[in-house]
Amino acid sequence: MSTIQTGGFRRQRDHFEPQDADPQEQRRLRGLLEQIDYAAFVANREVIGQLLPKVDAAAFQRLAVLTATARGKWVAESLRQSESGAPSTVDQIARLTAARAAYEELAEAYEGLRRMVERGYLSLR
To answer: How many CA atoms lie within 13 A of 45 on its CB side?
Structure first.
């Protein structure tokens, strides 16, 4: 099974790809898979559209600012810890880990929202 690097995480690629089937069977299977993909597209568009009805460019900007702020706090914390020259304490590492986790979660949420628009699941107002 191959993996695909997307943003900050790896996604397993597990789609079945027949190798030895006859061409007619392959076409039939591709048709069925297209129907499945379309059903998933419609479900995503309907569900996400209901959950996120008021997304606009300003929402993207607010999320981008929040994400940039989290990134800055994470790096600022690491620089603060490096000033003493002493090894970081367990508490300092915990703060740094929390700051990084906050940044990474916000960055993934931003990318997820962008993908929703890109794939047509969500329309910007």
So the answer is: 12
